[in-house]
Inverse folding.
């Protein structure tokens, strides 16, 4: 089946330029294709017509690399639950719909061009302790560290985060707490993360604040927008970890 | 071209130890005087960069994504093999070695593959210590599952996101080194040229993808971990940015390219929906543990699957290969799917799909158990196709997935260019003519965590610690060459877009150099590719400017390289007049229609050498098998 849509896309030629919305008819679009394939088709047309195509980030197109993302009709990654933009298919739209497409925006995420944003702030937070400090070669035999199945599953629930930034874009406070909480939870739940537990929580939270991300206001927009369905329980766990470290530990 | 694989002496099981003992070392105090460039941040790249920095080297890590956590290793679903024998089912290092060599159809080096099997166990240890949340049994021990091409259960997994979890583990290790000052990350950079000084690799020229600036980076050694080249087929399971450019540029500077035509076609991908398809999505091969592959017995039977009675279904893999059934290796499964579709038994409107059916498993184990095991894969399938595999069989079809070929490397992972190393999918080393499932992650991490960090000292110890000067003429020249290419692409101002050319190239490759190949088709492909390349350089249109974020220009550079490289794949496929691994030459088949390998004439690695304005020259590395007898690969 084919449908026709109106695309209102926010264009901006560089980080310091002024942005504006441009309106494009989609032309007849097969409902079998993905959202990004629709943008591909638009870009092919713009190229042939001598206009610059819309810059957008994307890579794996199977919902795991975390590169893609845009706000569609006010919702990061579009209207489908637990679905990245690349996995959103056009069968969820209907003839005549207007789609407003904007980049993820937050103080800590600089806009580069059109729909492309800079998410290196996430790297900076992970750098402060989003890992277990173990040099290659010094690991003990794998089964000497038993991990209860349920614990491993819960850790995995946090570890699934793809670092796309939708949580920040969805939050009224531009908070990155779902992202940070997911990593802190994963490592706090597992015995391997134990030795650095306090230091990690303090350092990552500090960096997150420094970079200009806001605080959690329990709106739960992040959870609703998260393409991996990461629960705000992770934020609660992060807060616990932070409090525990701040009050009970001797880490600075 | 001199090909010395530098295989250490001694019995197979002692070669790696012997090599490490005989290698020169760089003293810890001297390591910080050496700079190493690592291009790519997938499993091989990030694990190498992190480990080299842990050892004390100064590392620059480049990736073309916005952050190193996005390398395409992240998309690997099913798992990673290791010879732990936790299931006590008869596994051993030798068995993993044997399965890998056999799976590769006896076209890989014994010594390399044995080392891979030896190291496999330590990779699991390392990943677990990093907090990779592998699946566990109730007692808290690590769980395993089985994979194609093996009769033991040796695959470790983290739901359907094993690649993601391993990559995030390596990325964590990398970020820790960034924090400690050992690694500098240069994201959104694409390598445009390799710089050689007096025949040795000493740096790279990159494009800053945000600003379009070209940049020079000097080092004492260059490591390429830039992944595979499956996107030469346009449609593949690779990420959109996966490309051949870094290793192709290195090849043109003198690095030999091995077995380019060894391309793996994965049997279980979601079928093509139409002309605007941009990529194909793989469904993990682990699904074949419980899913049964079938087509209708009668060609042209268009009834929906649930109306086709049991007796009118052809479970062709189970019937033809009773020992392995649905778990035959990837090449066998792919070839048979194509055969069934060629016979007119393919399903869906396109006729280019077969069923993968879970009804039996659901009845046997219960819906809950199956959902728990494959839930996220099923969701992914439903998201893309709008159909629920719990209620009706999946439809699948083969797609280009992995490239066994790559830069030729010796036992130390050094290419034919001194100082230039290639890791992971970018090299050719361990999978022969076909890779077994769950072995790519194993190889990428073995190369990055354990092998390169142990071998690079052997080269660096003989290299001066004096800094390499990026102001040298060689750098300027490479930078000029890169800038000229960019200008040329921008000034053609023709009519056809990059994607248009890329799709046509992909079509040629898939039709003539895909699952089955023959001499006539390959020769036709050569003519078509040459003509297409000619048109590309005369009729391409690239919008936008050079000094800017310009994604069309990025793609144009990659497709320009694919158009040169494709010719070499075809040349390699033509030269290999045998069927081996994934490579089926239609002229070379037994009377039962099975592939016929020719050990007498083709037990070798074909290594292509670039020559300016001439066809590439083929050099041979002969393979000898002292520990396993190359038997006929049979899964019947």
């Amino acid at each position: 089946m084919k449908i026709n849509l109106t695309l209102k896309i926010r264009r901006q030629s560089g980080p310091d330029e002024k942005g504006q919305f441009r309106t494009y008819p989609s032309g007849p679009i097969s409902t079998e294709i993905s959202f990004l394939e629709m943008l591909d088709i638009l870009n092919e047309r713009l190229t042939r017509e001598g206009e610059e195509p819309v810059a957008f980030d994307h890579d794996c197109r199977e919902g795991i690399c975390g590169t893609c993302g845009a706000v569609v009709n006010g919702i990061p990654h579009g209207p489908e639950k637990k679905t990245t933009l690349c996995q959103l298919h056009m069968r969820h739209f209907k003839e005549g719909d207007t789609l407003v497409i904007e980049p993820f925006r937050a103080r800590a995420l600089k806009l580069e061009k059109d729909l492309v944003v800079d998410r290196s702030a996430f790297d900076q937070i992970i750098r402060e302790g989003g890992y277990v400090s173990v040099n290659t070669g010094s690991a003990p035999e794998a089964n000497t560290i038993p991990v209860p199945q349920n614990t491993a599953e819960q850790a995995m629930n946090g570890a699934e985060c793809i670092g796309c930034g939708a949580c920040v874009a969805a939050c009224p406070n531009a908070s990155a707490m779902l992202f940070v909480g997911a990593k802190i939870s994963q490592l706090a739940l597992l015995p391997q993360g134990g030795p650095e537990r306090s230091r990690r929580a303090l350092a990552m939270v500090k960096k997150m604040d420094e970079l200009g991300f806001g605080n959690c206001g329990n709106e739960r927009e992040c959870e609703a927008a998260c393409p991996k369905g990461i629960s705000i329980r992770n934020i609660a766990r992060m807060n616990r970890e932070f409090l525990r470290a701040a009050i009970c530990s001797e880490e600075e | 071209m001199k090909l010395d694989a530098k295989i250490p002496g001694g019995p197979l099981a002692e070669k790696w130890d012997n090599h490490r003992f005989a290698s020169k070392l760089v003293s810890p105090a001297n390591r910080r005087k050496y700079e190493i460039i690592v291009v790519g941040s997938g499993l091989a790249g990030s694990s190498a960069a992190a480990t080299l920095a842990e050892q004390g080297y100064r590392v620059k890590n480049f990736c073309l994504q916005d952050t190193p956590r996005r390398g395409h290793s992240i998309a690997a679903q099913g798992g990673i093999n290791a010879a732990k024998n936790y299931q006590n089912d008869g596994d051993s290092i030798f068995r993993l070695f044997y399965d890998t060599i056999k799976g590769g159809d006896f076209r890989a080096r014994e010594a390399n593959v044995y080392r891979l099997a030896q190291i496999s166990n330590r990779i699991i240890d390392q990943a677990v210590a990093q907090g990779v949340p592998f699946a566990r049994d109730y007692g808290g021990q690590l769980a395993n599952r089985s994979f194609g091409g093996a009769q033991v259960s040796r695959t470790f997994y983290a739901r359907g996101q094993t690649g993601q979890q391993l990559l995030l583990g390596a990325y964590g290790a990398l970020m820790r080194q960034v924090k400690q000052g050992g690694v500098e990350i240069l994201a959104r950079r694409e390598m445009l040229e390799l710089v050689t000084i007096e025949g040795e690799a000493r740096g790279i020229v990159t494009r800053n993808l945000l600003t379009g600036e070209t940049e020079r980076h000097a080092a004492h050694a260059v490591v390429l971990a830039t992944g595979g080249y499956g996107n030469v087929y346009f449609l593949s399971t690779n990420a959109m940015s996966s490309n051949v450019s870094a290793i192709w540029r290195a090849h043109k500077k003198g690095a030999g390219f091995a077995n380019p035509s060894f391309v793996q076609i994965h049997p279980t991908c979601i079928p093509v929906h139409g002309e605007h398809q941009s990529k194909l999505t793989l469904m993990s091969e682990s699904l074949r543990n419980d899913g049964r592959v079938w087509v209708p017995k009668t060609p042209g039977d268009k009834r929906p699957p649930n109306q086709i009675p049991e007796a009118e279904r052809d479970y062709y893999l189970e019937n033809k290969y009773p020992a392995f059934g649905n778990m035959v290796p990837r090449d066998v499964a792919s070839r048979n799917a194509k055969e069934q579709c060629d016979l007119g038994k393919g399903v869906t409107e396109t006729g280019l799909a077969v069923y993968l059916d879970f009804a039996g498993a659901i009845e046997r184990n219960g819906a809950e158990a199956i959902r728990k095991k494959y839930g996220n894969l099923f969701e992914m399938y439903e998201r893309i196709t709008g159909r629920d595999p719990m209620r009706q069989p999946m439809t699948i079809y083969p797609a280009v997935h992995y490239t066994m070929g790559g830069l030729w490397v010796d036992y130390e992972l050094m290419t034919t260019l001194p100082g230039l190393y290639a890791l992971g999918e970018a090299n050719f080393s361990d999978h022969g003519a076909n890779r077994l499932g769950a072995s790519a992650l194993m190889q990428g991490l073995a190369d990055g965590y354990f092998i390169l960090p142990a071998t690079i000292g052997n080269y660096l110890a003989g290299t001066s610690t004096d800094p390499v000067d990026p102001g040298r003429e060689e750098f300027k020249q490479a930078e000029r060459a890169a800038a000229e290419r960019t200008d040329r692409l921008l000034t053609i101002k023709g009519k056809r877009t990059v994607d248009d050319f890329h799709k046509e190239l992909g079509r040629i490759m898939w039709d003539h150099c895909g699952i089955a190949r023959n001499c006539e088709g390959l020769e036709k492909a050569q003519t078509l590719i040459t003509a297409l390349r000619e048109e590309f350089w005369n009729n391409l249109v690239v919008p936008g400017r050079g000094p800017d974020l310009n994604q069309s220009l990025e793609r144009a550079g990659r497709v320009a390289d694919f158009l040169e490289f494709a010719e070499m794949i075809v040349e390699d496929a033509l030269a290999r007049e045998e069927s081996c691994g994934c490579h089926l030459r239609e002229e070379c088949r037994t009377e039962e229609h099975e592939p016929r390998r020719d050990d007498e004439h083709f037990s070798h690695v074909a290594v292509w050498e670039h020559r300016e304005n001439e066809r590439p020259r083929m050099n041979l590395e002969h393979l000898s098998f002292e520990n396993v007898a190359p038997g006929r690969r049979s899964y019947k």
